[in-house]
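User: Second chain of the day. Same drill as before.
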Amino acid sequence: MSRSTKSEKARQLNAARSLLERQVELSEAAQKLSRKYGMSRRQAYRYLEEAAQLPHPVEVVEAAVPITLKLRPRTVRELRSYARRSGMTMGEIVSRALQAFLGTLRRHG
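Assistant: Same format as last time:
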């Protein structure tokens, strides 16, 4: 059996949390998760345990697609430095910058 992606795990945790919020009996909730997501009953209980600790639903993020970019060395140094200082990944920084740039293009033309 393959591992869940981050977005799949988020959906499964949210489903488990929803079942717990509706006060579905634990054994029934595990059975429902097991059937819906094709996981073992044991794994379903783990999701329920983890979901019980969540203060709010988990954000479901879209999966990232790897791409290759050629950047000037100075830009890469600045990007790496900013990533270290901010605690963000370089991919997250580039994604946010591109989204902001593309957003301005949509507004202006």
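The helical segments are 6-21, 26-37, 41-52, 73-86, 90-108.

User: Great, on to the next one.
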